[in-house]
Amino acid sequence: MEPRTIGVLIVEDSPINQKLFTHLCKTDPALAVIGVAGSGEAALAFIATRRPDVILMDIMMPGMNGYETTRRVMENDPIPIVICSASAQPGEVDKTFLALDAGAVAFIRKPVGPGHPDFKAEVSNLVQTLKTMSEIKLVKRQYRKSAAVAFAGRLPASRLPLRLVAIGASTGGPVAVQTLLKNLPRNYPLPLLVVQHIASGFLQGLADWLGSTTGFPVHVATSGLKVLPGHVYLAPDDFQMGITADATITLSADPPENGLRPAVSYLFRSVAGAYGPAAVGILLTGMGKDGAEDLRRMKDRGAVTIAQDSESSVINGMPGEAIRLGAASHVLPPESIANLMATLV
């Protein structure tokens, strides 16, 4: 049986970028560009006559922008949408995260030009993202529209007072982290450290978006910073983030783990060593297996460990691996994770 060809709709107002993205898609025989639209309105008109498997969408377009187009698609006939955004443009990062909030399944940075040392890697990432996201079952995102589900599991009869929460996430993570934070009480008493795999240049935009939509103070972490209760700290680009027993953030240029820096595994291992049973470890949606083994390390040290369930995960790679390893004491959607976190403290 011949492999399935993935139909791609490119939504981009720049003729140069239209040609570039069409060319890049042709580098993989699994992808076939079935249409090119120069505006959100044109994209909706195309979809009304022919349904693509995945959409590669720009954010900044005249008329209907990528955020509004995403919202319309998700309201009418949900199709996996990958946002392709240039993080350097003022205001564009915020709209990128609005598009995720509207239902886009992933975003990538617009590839640098041919000849740049990162060009091949970024093209490979674009192609692989389109192929992977074309398989997403969008019903998995229904958890964002449902009411919070009360945690109904069993808790230990007694345990050490908790001091810190460590969270790891990748594909689909921004919305999962946002959902979790939005369902926590505003006076939540523990600091929260987050490793979110994200394209370089978008992290400050993520921090701003999470802060504005959840009410929590959200910071890009710096080395030597003392963490505070109820504050969220994001691991910065290209650094491994750890924590000391006296609640001080450490950043290092230690080698990538699982091909990643920052790596969830590095953070979880640091938390296991510094906090043992006084910590909570949470592994959310994402490709690969980063963090799974070290979530089990946290569990072995007595920490509360939680994995996102497959039904609410955009990609069930990381949490699914944790569940397979027996690393998660609890398997829940983000709203219920928040409820459990509140119950624990």
Helix content: 25-40%
The CATH homologous superfamily of the largest domain = Methylesterase CheB, C-terminal domain
| Distinct helical segment count | 11
Query: How many independent structural domains?
Result: 2
Number of E-state strands: 14
CATH architecture of the largest domain: 3-Layer(aba) Sandwich
Oligomeric nature of the chains: single chain
Q: What are the main properties of this structure?
A:
345 residues, 7-stranded parallel β-sheet, 35% helix, Rossmann fold, alpha/beta, single chain, 5-stranded parallel β-sheet, 11 helices
Quick rundown:
The protein is of the alpha/beta class and 345 residues long.
What would your notes on this structure say?
There is one protein chain. The protein is an alpha/beta fold. It has two domains: 6-141, Rossmann fold, CATH 3.40.50; 150-344, Rossmann fold. Helix content is 35%, strand content 19%. The protein contains eleven helices and 14 strands. It has helices at residues 15-25, 40-49, 66-76, 92-102, 119-133, 173-182, 203-214, 264-275, 292-300, 317-324, 334-344, and strands spanning 6-11, 31-37, 54-58, 81-85, 106-109, 164-169, 192-196, 218-220, 232-234, 240-243, 249-252, 279-283, 304-308, 330-332. The strands form three sheets. A seven-stranded parallel β-sheet has the order 8-9-7-6-12-13-14, with helices on both faces. A five-stranded parallel β-sheet has the order 2-1-3-4-5, sandwiched between helices. Strand 4 (81-85), helix 4 (92-102) and strand 5 (106-109) form a beta-alpha-beta unit. Helix 6 packs across helix 11 and helix 8 packs parallel to helix 9 (292-300). The longest helix has 15 residues, at 119-133. The N and C termini lie far apart (54 Å). Mean pLDDT is 90; it is low at 139-152.
